[in-house]
Design brief:
Layout lengths: L1 E6 L3 E2 L5 E9 L6 E7 L6 E7 L4 E3 L7 E6 L4 E6 L8 E8 L8 E2 L3 E5 L2
Parallel strand pairs: 2-11
Antiparallel strand pairs: 1-3, 3-8, 4-5, 4-9, 5-6, 7-8, 9-10, 9-11
């Protein structure tokens, strides 16, 4: 079984940076691929980035060059470094895990809120 716990969400001014963390507890077979999603009220959940334990990463066009995903195999922790934050980045950010980056993400954290405003 897998449990995911996010942290690092906060309120920040435009142009600021945050690093989100997602600690994974349980077997590593089902957390071979981990990803970050975000969702705002009334909109579809957006997949931002994914990383697998072989070092492969994938990014949505909306965050390329701005956000960096990394997966620390030794710590079983996923990170999302977010720079140059804008008000439109305000959302609930959640991490998810799967045995395959192209498969179904069966495990989800509770989410951490990121708010970007002046």
């Amino acid at each position: 079984q897998v449990q995911l716990v996010e942290s690092g969400g906060d309120s920040v001014q435009p142009g600021g940076s945050l690093r989100l963390s997602c600690a994974a507890f349980g077997d590593t077979y089902n957390t071979y691929c981990m990803a970050w999603f975000r969702q705002v009220s009334g909109k579809e959940r957006e997949r931002l980035a994914a990383a697998d334990r072989a070092g492969n990463t994938h990014y949505a066009d909306s965050v390329k060059g701005l956000f960096t995903i990394s997966l620390d195999n030794a710590k079983n922790t996923l990170y999302l470094q977010m720079n140059s934050l804008k008000p439109e980045d305000t959302a609930m950010y959640s991490c998810a895990a799967s045995g395959n980056c192209y498969g179904t993400f069966n495990y989800w954290g509770q989410g951490t809120q990121v708010t970007v405003s002046s």
